[in-house]
Amino acid sequence: MKKILFVCSANIDRSKTAEDFYAEQFSEIAFHSAGTNHTICKEKGTNPLAQEDVDWADLILVMETKHRDWIYKNLEAKGSQIEVLNIEDIYTYYSIKLIETLQQKCSKYL
């Protein structure tokens, strides 16, 4: 089973929406999401990105370049396929516009 990890800053809106939306669409793919800002993740009760997440994933889709850079700086990502979606932090959880943007940016990976 293919495993895709979505990463944003706080795992509240963008990456969580991606995980939840695509899990409903593709039962043959495993999805997970996490955030690079561990302080906010801890405050909000969301998933802070850990080495285990990177090791688990076949493909890591990050929302912004800063998320890819954070992974390279803080975790061991050798051999990990990391792609930047270039989705700004301007959306709310599961908003129609965010889902449309995700569909446009993620279609070539699914």
What structural class do the secondary elements suggest?
Answer: alpha/beta
Strand order of the largest sheet: 2-1-3-4
Radius of gyration from the alpha-carbon trace, in angstroms? 13 Å
Question: Which H/E pattern describes the elements?
Answer: EHEHHEHEH
Please report the number of helical segments: 5
| Relevant CATH superfamily | Response regulator
The parts where pLDDT drops under 50 for at least 5 residues are: none
Distance between the termini: 12 Å
Could you explain the architecture of this structure?
The chain has 110 residues and is α/β, with parallel strands linked by helices. It has one domain (2-109): Rossmann fold (3-Layer(aba) Sandwich), CATH 3.40.50.2300. Helix content is 42%, strand content 20%. The protein is built from five helices and four strands. It has helices spanning 14-25, 38-44, 51-56, 65-74, 96-106; strands at residues 2-8, 29-35, 59-62, 81-84. It has a four-stranded parallel sheet. The longest helix is centred in the first third of the chain and has 12 residues, at 14-25. The mean pLDDT is 97.
Could you give a quick summary of the protein structure above?
The protein has helices at 14-25, 38-44, 51-56, 65-74, 96-106, and strands spanning 2-8, 29-35, 59-62, 81-84. The chain has 110 residues and is α/β, with parallel strands linked by helices. The protein has a four-stranded parallel beta sheet.
